């Protein structure tokens, strides 16, 4: 299923949007997504005059069909700035510092003075009708197995609203996401193969995870630009799972090979890793200065501040091997982004192999639950089947108790051993007496007492009878 | 620097191992020292510090050309009212050149139509007169006189209505003073502004302009401010020019009626809900306006705990003929019990006796003054002050300016101030609950 990508004239670049884990970019609202809404309001957006710019009767009729935008806000995550009813506050310094940190990690050139721009957005997804966006750095790179991949630009910008629903007359939006700081990274279109694309995406993600970024569904959006010889630039949006990137790209190559003439356009990813036509490629966005904000001088002081809090980038795999994992497990834990989780759980369980095995099959398991399950497994207080079931169903700690093995009290066990020795006197004479008795006892007390205890008591009782 | 480059040229800038290619833009007063602003092909602007390491190469001369104003290709409809638009400044009535980022005043009907094309379905823009382009905080008496003069001329020329675009900060003062200078007009006159800039999709001036145009089609011959009625882009209120105030620094529904009911609620699609019947009706025949153009030296001040009444003597020495004092609550000023140094009553009396008109308003904005319910109010009344009643202080200020400027003598001025000249006093305060304020 793999192609000869070089022969195909394969060209590929990535555009990655990553949300930062801070307050909003131009106000002090939080960036928590919630479906609890405190208020709503309606807006009619101005018609945007077409590129030719001329206005006639038919254009006027088009204006009449415009939909009303309905915005829903929560007092914690929305204020007058979000409603476009107050000028933006000064840019969030935490977000700016994170952007500078990522630029430093990618060996980029910071601009001397950041100019905040307004990028026209016409679909209503931002209340102002434009997105505030600023170029922070250019000309960086990331090392990959196929050499350096240049990072052309790092942009800090505000996210847009969440679309809730739409009908014939209205589009409904949630304001909570709007204004969340986003970093946009753009690579050069020099990625050589689909798996190389995956590598670049994972490397960039791993690097940014050293900084204060948001995690989880919807916090990162990765777009892929793909073209082949005699084809055209096709932009693929909405890739949910980064691991499916090679499949999606290969499917796109296959599709472009079948087409007689490929025109540049945007496609959306579907669940089966194929894509469907979304819209024509957007012409260069209308971008002009954000006059409500002052330009920001990138001073030595702010760069030093960014450097001061820049985390030491550690070789995760190496650390994992030091903690006692083999190559393969270390690689898997690192790839799954489970390093921190593994470290925390293993510090209590102190059994790297057991911890990593169970963590890899239950990546999203609650730390506390996983710790308890692993503890019980080690102490043989639970059997493997039940352990798996508990984790799979994400049971509560109290539910877990129901699966604990009822252990037999040592005195009870001793009584049973004595009783057995009396009833099986004939076995005592045999050479293999211990082994045979042990077998019988293990069968009887399986799951209620551990072998070590049984063997100790049996030995003690046998020695009394010699 | 190898080549001399100028704004608008495409250049290449090298600095250390960073390299940028783009169009050189003019620096603004917002920029830091020694910064060169470049527009990259991606659309982003970047600021590059000029220092000794910088290398600049010219790629192409004069690449940046201003965008053009869209052409309007629909005919005037003879059925629609002919409206003159008077531009005075502020963000409304401007348009943005997206290519250069510059903001320009609309100079022709076409330019207004390019910003709000649908207005062409409501009115015929007879003429656009750009009087000046001034931020509304910089407006002064001379601007007011010019506006009043042009309004008079346009009314006499026979237009069906007038729209005046204005910055929002002092919009309500201009609307009030205009009403006092021209009196009750024979045609609808709308003052309109915008709280957000016209480059953005959510430009509130769009609805304000459309509703001002709808107001021009009514028979309400009054000076009104037409601005958003809610935080939604759904309707505007036309509020009497003497009884409206900007009550929020940035919300689009900042303009609220003070002790009055708006004349009408106006929707974008032309729907109108008339909220009162007692307005002055359009007069087809009458075209004369008697201007009261003189404006006296008047001032506005406020009392508060520990305030020093000696400030009044300063005003007197500087030649002020009239003062509006925002009293507390029903119109109180600190009296005897405030202490010898803080008792305003004797100095107020001294100024009144010397022929200064002092008007007492309330700092609460809403509600009216009272001259008798408390002893201190009765004592204040005895000094000979006038009462602003339900006029808010800024409206009382400009009324006092016009009255003192045009009266024959002091007694005439006092009489004029007490007279309900253009409907600025209302006998009754509205409850207002149904409007949400
Ligand atoms: Zn906010």
Descriptive account of the structure:
The complex is a heterodimer of chains A (466) and B (437). Chain A has 3 domains: 300 residues, no CATH class; 88 residues, no CATH class; 55 residues. Chain A is 37% helix and 22% strand. The model of chain A has no long low-confidence stretch (mean pLDDT 89). Chain B has 3 domains: 51 residues, Roll (SH3 type barrels), CATH 2.30.30; 193 residues, Rossmann fold (3-Layer(aba) Sandwich), CATH 3.40.50; 121 residues, Rossmann fold (3-Layer(aba) Sandwich). Helices cover 22% and strands 24% of the residues of chain B. In chain B, a hairpin with a 2-residue loop joins strand 1 and strand 2. In chain B, helix 3 packs parallel to helix 8. Chain B starts with 9 loop residues before the first strand and ends in a 19-residue tail after the last helix. Classes of the chains: A alpha+beta (466), B alpha/beta (437). Chains A and B meet through strand 2, helix 2, strand 5, strand 6 and strand 7 of A and strand 2, strand 3 and strand 4 of B. Strand 5 of chain A pairs antiparallel with strand 4 of chain B, so a sheet runs across the interface.
Strand and helix layout:
The complex is a heterodimer of chains A (466) and B (437).
Chain A: H1 5-8, E1 11-19, E2 39-44, H2 57-64, E3 68-73, H3 93-105, E4 109-110, E5 113-114, E6 116-120, E7 130-144, E8 147-158, E9 162-166, E10 170-174, E11 181-187, H4 194-208, E12 220-227, E13 234-239, H5 245-258, E14 265-269, E15 275-280, E16 287-289, E17 296-297, H6 300-308, H7 316-322, H8 327-335, H9 339-349, H10 352-361, H11 367-378, H12 384-392, H13 397-401, H14 410-423, H15 425-428, H16 433-445, H17 451-464
Parallel strand pairs in A: 3-10, 13-14
Antiparallel strand pairs in A: 1-11, 1-12, 2-3, 4-7, 5-17, 6-7, 6-16, 7-8, 8-11, 9-10, 12-13, 14-15
Chain B: E1 10-15, E2 18-25, E3 35-40, E4 45-49, E5 54-60, E6 82-87, E7 94-97, E8 102-105, H1 109-115, E9 124-130, H2 141-157, E10 161-165, H3 171-182, E11 189-192, H4 205-216, E12 223-228, E13 235-240, E14 244-246, E15 255-257, E16 264-267, E17 272-274, E18 298-302, H5 311-317, E19 322-327, H6 345-353, E20 357-362, H7 375-382, E21 386-387, H8 393-406, H9 410-418
Parallel strand pairs in B: 6-9, 6-10, 10-11, 11-12, 18-19, 19-20, 20-21
Antiparallel strand pairs in B: 1-2, 1-5, 2-3, 3-4, 7-8, 12-13, 13-16, 14-15, 16-17
Helix pairs in contact in B: 2-3, 3-8, 8-9
The structure holds zinc ion.
Residues 24, 27, 29, 78-79, 81-82 of chain A line the site of zinc ion.
């Amino acid at each position: 299923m793999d192609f000869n990508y070089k022969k195909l004239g394969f060209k590929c670049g990535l555009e990655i949007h990553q949300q930062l884990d801070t307050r909003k970019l131009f106000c002090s609202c939080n960036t928590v997504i919630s479906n609890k809404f405190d208020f709503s309001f309606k807006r009619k957006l101005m018609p945007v005059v077409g590129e030719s710019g001329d206005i006639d009767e038919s254009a006027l009729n088009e204006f009449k069909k415009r939909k009303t935008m309905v915005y829903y806000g929560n007092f914690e995550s929305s204020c007058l700035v979000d409603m476009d009813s107050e000028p933006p506050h000064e840019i969030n310094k935490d977000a700016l510092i994170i952007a500078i940190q990522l630029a430093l990690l990618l060996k980029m050139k910071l601009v001397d003075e950041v100019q905040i721009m307004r990028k026209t957005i016409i679909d209503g997804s931002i209340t102002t009708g434009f997105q505030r966006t600023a170029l922070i750095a250019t000309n960086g790179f990331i090392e990959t197995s196929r050499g350096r991949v240049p990072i052309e630009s790092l942009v800090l910008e505000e996210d847009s609203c969440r679309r809730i629903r739409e009908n014939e007359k209205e589009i409904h939006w949630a304001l909570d996401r709007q204004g969340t700081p986003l970093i946009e990274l753009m690579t050069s279109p020099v990625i050589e193969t689909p798996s190389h694309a995956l590598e670049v995406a994972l490397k960039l993600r791993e690097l940014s995870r050293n900084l204060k970024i948001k995690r989880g569904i919807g916090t990162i959006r990765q777009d892929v630009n793909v073209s082949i010889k005699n084809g055209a630039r096709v932009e693929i949006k909405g890739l949910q799972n980064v691991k499916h990137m090679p499949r999606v790209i290969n499917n796109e190559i296959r599709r472009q090979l079948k087409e007689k003439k490929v025109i540049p356009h945007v496609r959306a990813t579907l669940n089966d890793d194929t894509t469907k036509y979304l819209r024509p490629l957007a012409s260069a966005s209308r971008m002009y200065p954000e006059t409500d904000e002052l330009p920001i001088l990138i001073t030595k002081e702010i760069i030093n501040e960014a450097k001061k809090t820049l985390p030491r980038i550690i070789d995760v795999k190496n650390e994992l091997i030091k903690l006692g994992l083999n190559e393969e497990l270390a690689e898997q834990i690192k790839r799954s982004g489970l390093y921190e989780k593994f470290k925390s759980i293993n510090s209590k369980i102190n059994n790297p192999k057991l911890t990593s095995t169970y963590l890899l099959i239950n990546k999203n398991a609650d730390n506390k639950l996983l710790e308890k399950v692993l503890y019980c497994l080690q102490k043989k207080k639970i059997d493997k089947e039940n352990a798996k079931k508990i984790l799979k169903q994400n049971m509560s700690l109290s539910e877990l108790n129901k699966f604990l093995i009822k252990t037999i009290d040592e005195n009870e066990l001793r009584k049973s051993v004595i009783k057995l020795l009396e009833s099986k006197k004939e076995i005592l004479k045999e050479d293999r007496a211990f082994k045979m008795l042990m077998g019988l006892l293990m069968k009887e007390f399986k799951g209620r007492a551990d072998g070590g205890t049984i063997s100790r008591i049996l030995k003690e009782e046998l020695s009394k009878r010699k | 620097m190898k080549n001399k480059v100028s704004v608008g040229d495409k250049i290449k800038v090298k600095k250390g191992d960073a390299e940028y290619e783009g169009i050189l833009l003019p620096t603004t007063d917002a920029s830091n020292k020694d910064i060169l602003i470049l527009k990259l092909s991606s659309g982003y602007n970047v600021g590059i510090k000029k220092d000794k390491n910088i290398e600049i190469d010219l790629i192409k001369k004069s690449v940046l050309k201003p965008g053009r104003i869209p052409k309007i290709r629909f005919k005037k409809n003879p059925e629609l009212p002919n409206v003159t638009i008077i531009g005075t400044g502020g963000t409304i009535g401007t348009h943005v050149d997206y290519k250069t980022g510059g903001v320009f005043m609309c100079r022709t009907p076409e330019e207004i139509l390019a910003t709000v094309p649908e207005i062409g379905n409501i009115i015929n823009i007879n003429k656009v007169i750009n009087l000046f382009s001034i931020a509304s905080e910089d407006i002064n008496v001379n601007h007011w006189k010019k506006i009043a003069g042009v309004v008079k001329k346009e009314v006499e020329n026979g237009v069906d209505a007038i729209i005046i675009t204005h910055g929002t900060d002092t919009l309500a003062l201009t609307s009030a003073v205009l009403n006092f200078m021209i009196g009750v007009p024979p045609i609808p006159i709308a003052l309109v502004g915008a709280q957000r800039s016209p480059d953005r999709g959510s430009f509130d001036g769009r609805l304000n302009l459309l509703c001002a145009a709808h107001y021009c089609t009514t028979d309400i011959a009054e000076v009104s401010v037409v601005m958003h009625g809610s935080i939604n882009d759904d309707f505007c209120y036309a509020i009497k020019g003497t009884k409206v105030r900007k009550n929020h620094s940035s919300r689009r529904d900042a303009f609220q009626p003070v002790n009055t009911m708006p004349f009408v609620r106006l929707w974008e699609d032309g729907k109108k809900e008339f909220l009162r019947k007692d307005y002055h009706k359009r007069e087809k025949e009458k075209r004369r306006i008697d201007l009261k153009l003189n404006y006296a030296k008047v001032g506005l001040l406020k009392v508060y705990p520990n305030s020093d009444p000696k400030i009044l003597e300063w005003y007197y020495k500087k030649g002020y003929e009239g003062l509006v004092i925002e009293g507390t609550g029903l119109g109180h000023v600190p009296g005897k019990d405030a202490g010898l140094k803080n008792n305003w009553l004797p100095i107020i009396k001294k100024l009144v006796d010397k022929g200064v008109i002092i008007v007492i308003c309330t700092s609460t904005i809403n509600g009216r003054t009272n001259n008798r319910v408390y002893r201190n109010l009765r004592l204040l009344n005895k000094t000979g002050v006038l009462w602003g009643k339900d006029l808010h202080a800024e409206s009382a200020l400009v009324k006092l300016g016009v009255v003192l400027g045009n009266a024959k003598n002091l007694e005439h001025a006092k009489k004029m101030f007490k007279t309900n000249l253009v409907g600025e006093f209302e006998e009754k305060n509205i409850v207002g609950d149904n409007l949400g304020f």
